[in-house]
Structure formats: C-alpha cells, structure tokens
C-alpha cells in the first residue's frame, strides 16, 4: 500500500505530471532540459525528480556531468500510464511537447550556457 501511496503522491503535482508526460514522449531528458521546460530552479527540478524516483516512476543515469531521466514503469502500472496518456492530452501538454522539440534541438552545452552563463561550459 505504501508504494501505491508514493506513486499517487508523486503524481499529485502539476510539474511532476508534466515531467511524466514529457518522458512518455521523449525517451529520456537531461536535467537541464527538464529545468528549461518547467522554468524553475535546478534545485526544484532535483526535488521533483527525487520524488518521482522514490515512487519508482523515473530512473536516472549519469553521463559525465549530465544526468538523464527516463520512465521506469513499475510492474502492473501500464494501465496507469495508459490512463495518464489519455487524461493528459490537452493544451498544456501539447504546448510542452512543442517547447521540448525546441529544447532538445539545442546542444546540452548551449542550453547550459543559456541557463547559467558563458562560464558554465568552456
């Protein structure tokens, strides 16, 4: 029962739902791409992603200085993800997908420079 509560709590936030929808469309996203999508501070994204990871909905991998996130659908959760995909179809999610198309077209370094300044990625 606790695991189910963790999943429901993780999905009870608009930004976390947006991230789950984005990861459903894009196989994996860098933390900087999620930050750019949500337009929040990196620490806020880190907190959201930790909650999603604790619930078992999201996994991560590190590649050098970059952290990538991806969906990890827990066993038996496929109906939940089908429901989410149907219920999240709307203006906000479609706008997020259009925004993400532009974001993923940027290099990680360019995105980092946009967010943190020229000294970020020499």
Helix/strand layout:
Blueprint: H1 2-10, H2 14-25, E1 28-30, H3 31-38, H4 42-54, E2 58-63, E3 66-71, H5 78-87, H6 91-105, H7 108-116
Antiparallel strand pairs: 1-3, 2-3
Helix pairs in contact: 2-6, 3-4
Description:
- By secondary structure, the chain is of the alpha+beta class.
- The protein has one domain (2-115): Orthogonal Bundle (Arc Repressor Mutant, subunit A), CATH 1.10.10.
- The protein is built from seven helices and three strands, in the order ααβααββααα.
- It has helices at 2-10, 14-25, 31-38, 42-54, 78-87, 91-105, 108-116, and strands spanning 28-30, 58-63, 66-71.
- It has a three-stranded antiparallel β-sheet with strand order 1-3-2.
- The N and C termini lie far apart (48 Å).
- The model has no long low-confidence stretch (mean pLDDT 87).
Features:
alpha+beta, transcription, Arc Repressor Mutant, subunit A, globular, 122 residues
Give the CATH topology: Arc Repressor Mutant, subunit A
- Helix count, DSSP H or I runs of 4 or more residues: 7
How much of the sequence lies in strands comes to 5-15%
| Extended strand count | 3
Please estimate the helix content: 55-70%
CATH class category label: Mainly Alpha
Give the structural class.
alpha+beta
Instruction: Please state how the strands of the largest beta sheet are arranged side by side.
Output: 1-3-2
| Secondary-structure element order, N to C | HHEHHEEHHH
**Ends: how far apart?**
48 Å
CATH superfamily: Winged helix-like DNA-binding domain superfamily/Winged helix DNA-binding domain
The count of domains is: 1
The 3D shape can be described as: globular
Cα-atom radius of gyration:
15 Å
